[in-house]
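Field reference: sequence -> structure
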Amino acid sequence: MNSLFIAVNLIKRTIGNWRGFLLFIVAPALLVSLIIWTVEHQDKQAAICYLNLDEGPVGGHVVRELELTGRYRLSAAASPESLREAVTERKAVAAFIIPAGFSQSLMEGRAVRAEQLELAMSEASFTLRMSLDHTIQRVNNAIRMLKASDQPGDRLGQMLEQAEKHQVRAIRTDFGSYASPALGLATGILLIFLMGLVNNSVSIMVEDRKQKTMTRIFTAPVPAYEIMLGNFLGSFAVGTLQIVLVLGFTRYGMNFSYGLPFMPHLLVMECFLLAVMGIGSAVAGLVRNSKNIGAVNAIVTTPTCMLGGCFWPVWIMPEFMQKLANFVPQTWAIEAIHRLGSGQGLGDVAMHLGVLGLFAVVLLGIGSVVMKPGETEAG
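Structure field:
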């Protein structure tokens, strides 16, 4: 009974006012929903500019083949300057230039490539480079066939025109065995809000130590384990409410398909919540001055979220950072969600859940050791 009273009191202190309710309950649901809506409704075709200076048939063939893929929205540029301007002003994701004499160079057996312009590498610019190289390689194969059969060079245009009909096509069957593009980013943002509970827990504990409320609580005729259990249940209830509301609103309110069942999804998030609570207890035991609470976000929340893949995939980081990412719980939570979203079961993410549980046990143990209720705020 004492534990429940302490838990309810902690819940009131966290979300019992409008500021706390908006920050920890409403804001996560709205922001995650906005991200999902943005990703789901974004233009699937990447804007690409091009300049075709080739007088032969190959330049036009390359452009038409790119249009047939359906992945790009191509627009012709008047000059190289306008092409570069479109890229620098982000009117186009990337651009390419087919140089003059392109067809003739290929017919003579010289290795040439279309020049590609981009501000930064992205998925669209990378696939564009692959598509250009693949199309040019097929043209080279056609030229070698013409030379091997002693056909005249002017037959190249006819061969390319016939190839553009694509009378023989491969049929692709999409079994959906991959995670949704919005899953990783939406999960990362939710984990960031859960990490925000760390700052709140630290603030409450440091304030209690400053006001000597913690000292009075532990001198009361209540067993210490009931006090710890009450604080644990209160923090766990607030985090669970946040997770359930976000998942419920995005799944059933926005009808977004995460690609995995609700209960396994909730289980992974709850395991991460336990790890977050462990981080909060450990940090609260180490912070001795209320003026240092703001530094918690700078040295704990933001770096671990960046390292754990909340903002970008872990695999794009340098190798040494990928190894360091294994020491933060966000990495294991996001990886588990991705595995479940791609069709794997709970047995396949048992190790990830075990690592999150280990984070929670170790950090909660550290927090219980370094937490000294009798200490007041350090000067």
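Note: The chain has a mean pLDDT of 78.
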